[in-house]
Amino acid sequence: MRSAMTGPVRQDAAMALVLLAAGQARRFGGGKLSASLDGQPLVLHAVSALQEMAFSAGRFAVTSAQTPPLGGHGFTPIRLHPDGAPLSRSLALGIAAARQAGATAAMIVLGDMPRVPTRHYRAMARHFDGDRLATLVDGRKQVPAIFAARHFPALMALSGDRGAGALLQDAMALTLEAALAADIDTRDDLARAARQPAPDGKHGQPTACVKKTKG
Fold first, then answer.
1. I need a labelling partner for 111 at 20 to 30 A (CA). Which of 11, 50, 89, 95 fits?
2. What is the pTM of this model?
């Protein structure tokens, strides 16, 4: 199923945005989210792609000492503690903030995925079915993803470096090409992203198509 994503996205759910931006970037050598891509810090690409979308339950960013300031972009910062805690801890802190704000759903986004276009986020908000919606990349379901509030306890109960993808295997999904879904773990990844043209995320047809797949 395809549909044009034009105009502002209207969301019936009281949706929160949870941006995970607290990774230690050990494989990168530190300072990953501040590294320059197309002349701006890496994390600001995700921030910019989501800037024009409405999140009535708020925008929350889980951050570390290495994260560039995001308060000026409408985010409530949540400092990861303890320092160096695993991904599951970042997720739990972000979801706890969304729940406290009264969110009935949360969109989970990673700060090191700079090429996900606005049109994909808009398509996700448009097609969210009130349960879960994943991103499908080369047959694998992952974030960005949206979860209804009934899944918040399960998200907060994850441990170690298990992320939200562990709860998406039987979810609806929107496809996204691998080049746009790439995350940045190393300096080589950053160099590849620099060679990938920035997507025109504000106009045109979405590349995603709603699919129901088995995990």
1. 11
2. 0.87
